[in-house]
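Check this:
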Amino acid sequence: MLSDRQGTVILIGYQYKENLGLRYLSACLKKKSYRVKLIVLPAAPEEVIKTIKDIQPDIVGFSLIFQNFAPDFADLISIVRRSGCFAHLTIGGHYPSFDYIQVLKSIPELDSAIRFEGEETLISLLEAVIKNKPLDEVKGIAWRNESGQIITNPLRPGCMNLDLLPRPDREDLNYKFNWLSTASMIGSRGCYHNCAFCSIAPFYKKNKTPGRRFRSPLEVVDEMEMLHNRGADVILFQDDDFLSGGKRGIEWAHAIASECVRRGLNRTLRWRVSCRSDEVSQDILAPLVDGGLSHVYLGVESGDLQNLIDLNKKLTPETHMVARETLQVLNLTFDFGFMLLIPWSTFNTIRNNLKFLREFAGKGEAPCGFCRTLPYAGTAIADRLKKEKRLLPGFLAKYNFEDPRLDTFHTWLYQVFNRRNNDPGGTRNLLSVLLFEAKVNLPKYPYSQLNEVVLRSLISISNTVMIDTVEIALDYFESKKEPPFLDDPFLEELHQHHEEEDLRIHQDINRWCNSRLNAMFMSEI
């Protein structure tokens, strides 16, 4: 149990990719000798309330990573306040940073919202709270005064020198697992691109830190080595775009790779990065592969040219194809983000996307999945939908398509494919993990060409079943003058057919995994 002295903060959030934002906040507070307790969601409300009562914090801070989780946070915050908690309740994250008035009005139990980067702001807020000082002097927050009025304070510029920040607080994390332990970290903050669906560039522009800030390569590799010594086999870089920034960004990435080689980390440590298709070339990536890079997350988003224009990707479908071929030449595995539907989708653009997916990954190059574009607060897409009067009110960033048949089509897709595409134990995620493992090529995870051949076949079958099912449904919806009902017999039969095929694939994956484990066990006898 923590001390009950003043200067105590409870931070609550989901553990998604270790929630580095929350862990940076914790590290900065501890550096100032304040006390911090992390509560990882999902946690039972009773557990949260008990911890708050035991510790009696000065501030309870909520980390809202994803906008669609806002209703869940609203419920939890209401329960916390009704339990008799008198602490200052604040919330931070991308969504509260942009849409703080909506958040504070919709969650009346909150006292404040921290806007944009919060390390210095949270410390300043805590010092004001424990000294009972006026909040109007705390830069970077919006808050509710005694009369209920929402006050917006001036913003606080973000930290320009990221090397001055302490490393994330990972005291509660253990990386010494038996099988391919991963750790998350960042080497930079920001992105130079302005994709219409993404809030990253607007976030850092409002934060008065536009573009990209880099940590020093030596400090980045120092943290990689520390995590490796603590048991991590793979570093998952959470940088929004590991290669953005032109020549400077590439030189920075190459410096990290070179230092990994110099220290010998490339022999026993692997890493994963995210980038755009137009940043994928042998000249750029080959040095990273030498340094330990084994996997790339590719921001594909769409295979339809008009969709890519609406998303402001400034890429063509052909650019994605070239990137895929380059990754294959470099023997890198990859996965990719894909928005089958965007707010301006038509039956034709969806059909183009399906055709693209079949060519891009139909032979098992990577597991396919899809979603629809969400107009997050702060994005150009949200602004455009507001002007078109198509953005529906509320937390969840909902909108209707221009063709009402596509609204029902999307609902049907969600019912049929949500588990396959998004569940941690769903087919797509299982295949992604297995593909990564098949090519990680570390001493204790030996590479097997036969394993890869079988796995690529399973991925190809799964992708084909998904694409075929979506195409059949698309044709059916397009043939109707009005949106069909979701309990339409044809759609129910198609749904059932996909469930049966996906179950067979899942069973094949389990049999293959069991045969691999048996072979590994026999080889060790």
